[in-house]
Amino acid sequence: MNIGMSVTSTPDLIAAASDRLTPTERRIAEAVLEDPTLLAFGTVSDLANQCRTSRPTIVRFAHKLGFDGYSDLQDEVRAGLSQELARPSERIRRTHPESVRDQTALETALVAALAELTPERLSLLAAPIELAHRVWILSGETSRAGAHALHSGLSMLRPGVFLVEDHAVGRTLGGATHRDAAVVLDFFRYRRTTLLAATSLADRGVPIVAITDGPLSPLTALTDLWCRVDVPAVGPFDSSVPAVAVAELLVAQVARDMPDQATAWIDKTEAMWESTETFSEPL
Questions:
Q1: Is residue 35 part of a domain?
Q2: Is the whole model's pTM more than 0.90, yes or no?
Q3: How many other CB atoms are found less than 10 A from the CB of residue 266?
């Protein structure tokens, strides 16, 4: 029987145990994330054969996720899958063939991000940002546009928001404390400097909000506050658009949650723009 868990999505179950999974168990996790029906409707032997491992290893994998046995895990995943299949993100994924065009891949990623960011999840992710003395933003390469959008938006709403550059990690983060918060955006291939800096902040008790690409990301081992963002390939490069969309939604949530402070800070910024004639008047 499942140890005190309500119906939980497969990615959340795996994320909670990601830092304790062996390489073989990570291979099982990757197969299940790729196709949850393997676990929901297959036997122990089916999943073991698919993952090129043994039945006892599959059972140990279920134990790692917090269940007494495979059947308990299977019941949980079946219940979660029935909800997952009703989500627009899943419907659109099943509508198109694997060889989708760039535009369709981007649309799919955006729909998935919107489905992931329920009002409840957005509020949870925004809470540490609102309470923090200072907010540190760390980013990998693909996620850099999202980090800039987050920094720009949050800086308009509150003081003490810093975008941390790789070359200045030690100097910038040396005084970080548990009163701060860090938002870390990174996707596969994860940037070593970003991961090490996030780990160091977590060790200091700094709350971490992670925007990453799934429960097997090393960032999910640092925090329960994370958001999954699918990053499609658009042409030869990974798209920055989903990360920017999530950043903008997070900024909008912070603005809704702290309207008085956000309004006052925007007014101060506007006044400075006017006094310095930052913008040219239209001809």
A1: yes
A2: no
A3: 13
